[in-house]
User: What shape does this take?
Amino acid sequence: MPREWDADAYDTLPIPMTGWGRAVVDRLALRGDERVLDAGCGTGHVTAYLLQRLPVGSVVALDGSASMLEAARTRLPSGRVTFLLHDLLDPIPIDPVDAAVSTATFHWVPDHDRLFANLAAVMRPGATLEAQCGGAGNIANVTRALAELGIDLERDKNFADPQTTEERLGRAGFVDVRCWLTDEPTYLPAEDLPRYLRTICMGAVVEGLPAEESDRLIAEVAVRLQEPRIDYVRLNIAARRAQ
Assistant: This one.
């Protein structure tokens, strides 16, 4: 099952994902009347921006976290949004869409072949996909810090490379595929780093740990990072559903 997030904490942190997400939405060529799938809408910040690009269109806002989806529902009272709590590993129960967008989500899906097949199945012939997620080398400095403590941060993540992703998209029925990596090292206010690590980078690692133990682990990782920087690497995806 998808991870359950702390939507309140996510919304109060200085996350860079919203800005990146808006840039991904800007890559979509839209008339303004389309029906678009937001695959991994989170708390709805990027979805709200997408709606601005669709003055007479509509959005299917999908997420695997109930708390994130509820926050999006509160943020987006528009009747032009359909909300769907769903695991992207399963077939998506919606009518075909004219385009799909996704930001900061695909690396949480362990099987990208199934993911892309499920997306292709609900996209009209010729529909465009624009997406961005964690790619090969993403948050490597956090991964190294945890590895020094004997913990595999990537055990529940899929940080894919461009060539592998292009091949998977082709098998799923996409054409005009282009994938590329961008380095996005991100500095955080030092006082926000522990909460950021707990909520964004290490949520699955500390989940279920006693509070004292999780606090100690997060503090140790913060020290090992030496500075409040997360070495993000983003995998960008642009493709079109075959006719």
